Every structure is written in C-alpha cells, then in structure tokens.
Amino acid sequence: MSDDQRGHWPITADLTLLRQRLLRHAARAGLSGPRLDDLLIAANEAAINVLEHGGGDGTLTIWHDEADLTVDVVDTSGRLTPSDVHRRRPPGPTDRGFGLWLMAQLCDEFTIRQLSGRSRVRLRMRLSPAV
Amino acid sequence: MTTAVQLDPHPDDTLPRTLIVALSGELDYTNAEQLRQQAVSHLTPDHRNMVLDLAGLTFCDSTGIRIFLALRTLITDRGGVISLTDLHPRLSRVFQTTGLVKFFAVQPTRADALAELRAQPSPR
C-alpha cells in the first residue's frame, strides 16, 4: 500500500466533510451498500466521541489492503480503554453510550488501544466477507 | 459545524393539533441541539402530535436520535403521538440497531402517518 492510498484527516466540527472523505475512500476500496453505511455510522460515532469526550482534537486515518478496510480514530485524551469495546447496550433510551455500542454492532472488528496518553479506536470491515 | 438541518412545516387543515415538519440535511453532534430548539420553536400549546417527514435526512447519529427522543418526551407528556416517516436506509439502520425504533410510530410515508392520525378518535 502506498501512502497516496491512505486518507488521514483531522477531526473537526466539519463532520460532513469528514463523512464525504470517508465515503469516497471506502467506496473506492470496494465497500458498498449497507456495509458502507455501517462503517460510515460507526466511524462518525468514533469521531464525535473525540469531539465530545476525547479532548476535542484527533485524527481519522483510513486505508485498505486486499482483505480489509481499516479506520483508525485517535484522540488526545486517552480516556477510552481496551475494555470499552465490551460495553453493554445502554439500558435506557436516553442514556449515553450508544456510540461505542454501535461501533461494536456495525463493524467486523472493533478494538481500542491506549498509546502514550491517546486512545486509538480501530474499526475494520472485511472487503470480501465470508459467505 | 455541519450545515443546520432544514425544517419545513407542512400544516394540514384536517389535523390542526398536529405539527407536521419535513427535515432535510444531515443531523449529527454538531447541529443536533440547534434542530431541537428549532423544532420546539414550532410547537404551540395546541399541538398534541408531531409528524417528522425524514425523506430529506440522509444522516443521523446517536446524538441526533437523542434529539428525537427529547421531542418524543415533549409529545408524550401531552398525551400525543410522534411519528417518523420516510426513513433513509442509514437512519433505519441506526434506529433498528440501537433498538430505539420502538419509541416511535414509524410509517412508510408522511401520508400514512397523517391517515393514521385522522383515524384516531382523540383530538388530532
């Protein structure tokens, strides 16, 4: 994979632009239909987590190889921990926490790593799902 | 910030107590509160029900759903019904996956929602 196939953007309040960039890249990588929508919804949840809880500053990186499309969302607060991927569905309709729940439901792989004061959410979709 | 969601009222003479609005744009964390305030500003004390035609809404995140839930509380406190219609597949996916779809009367089209309300015996 060469660097020009990688998308790397700051997360700002211009979420429309971020979603457009993500859609364009993911579609070019071969994701389409409901699975493209699922990745879009999950990546947006990761991005708004950065704006709301993650120090307000972060980046989104997207790349793919033959097997997978990967989106990394890195914040500057480091509040999310690996165990946050196992959060249960929020019990009440107005409770917070649906974002992490959605990421786990919608993506083939959802992991969180802490890296020197930052948290990295990784969302992954298989490009050729097993039948 | 994401461009504000556009809210267009579509009053119906046969349903004077129902606020009917069409939403268009993209609803997310950056403009959700703005939409709530806009929707509330269109509510009068006479309104009992609300119909939200979402045909033009191409995106909604978890913060957007919270706004719909807040509007639902306002309407159910009045003893009314809140209907969502014409959901984009992306919106259906978010509502279905979160399970929050059950808090709303979801109808295929605005016309279906209005017909359902007209069939109600209570004030419309």
TrEMBL record, chain A:
Keywords: ATP-binding, Kinase, Nucleotide-binding, Serine/threonine-protein kinase, Transferase. Pfam families: HATPase_c_2. InterPro entries: Anti-sigma-factor_SerPK, HATPase_C_sf, HATPase_dom. The keyword Cell inner membrane does not apply. Residues 13-124 form the Histidine kinase/HSP90-like ATPase domain. This is ATP-binding protein. It comes from the Bacteria. One of its GO terms (molecular function) is ATP binding.
Automatic annotation (TrEMBL), chain B:
InterPro entries: Anti-sigma_ant (IPR003658), STAS_dom (IPR002645), STAS_dom_sf (IPR036513). This is Anti-sigma factor antagonist. Residues 16-117 form the STAS domain. CDD domains: STAS_anti-anti-sigma_factors. SUPFAM superfamilies: SpoIIaa-like (SSF52091). PROSITE patterns: STAS. Belongs to the anti-sigma-factor antagonist family. Signal peptide: none annotated. It comes from Sphaerisporangium corydalis.
